[in-house]
């Protein structure tokens, strides 16, 4: 009986050593490796996102003294003459440009990395609020460049109607929307 107990304890001891080695391997090698891979992937995504964001912002805001980028946390930053500007102090059109550039960059990244979710639809709700006539013209160039087969734009801007293949006018009558 004692020999059985001794064998059982020796097996338990071997199992304990093996589990301890697994724990060391997971903590010292596997988790740091996964963390490193994740950081590398996120850095690449951030760089690509930043590049796209800068491109779209540059097309929308032609002020050569203003530059935009995203930081490591994907937060948009705008600089003028080398000084960072608070987003809240930008003009309405500049804020909208930041928002639209961000949405377009995000759409691009999502399309590239989401293999299981293929979409050919881009929906933009009031993407041009506060835009000048020149900026509205740039939207046409951007829509041509993004090559999205279907774009739905919700807007009050009459100038955007010339960009559309189909226009649906929605009006409210007695609290109900009518098309």
Explain this structure.
Helices cover 53% and strands 16% of the residues. The protein has 179 residues and is an alpha+beta fold.
Helix/strand/pairing class, anyone?
A: alpha+beta
Secondary structure tally: strands: 7
The average pLDDT value, as a whole number, equals: 91
Report the biggest beta sheet as strand number plus sense, adding barrel if it closes.
Answer: 3 strands, antiparallel
User: Which percent range fits the helix content?
Assistant: 40-55%
* Portion in strands: 15-25%
Strand order of the largest sheet: 1-2-3
How widely separated are the two ends?
A: 87 Å
Number of helices: 3
Radius of gyration: 27 Å
- Basic shape: elongated
Instruction: Report the order of strands and helices.
Output: HEEEHEHEEE
Q: Regions with pLDDT < 50 over 5+ consecutive residues?
A: none
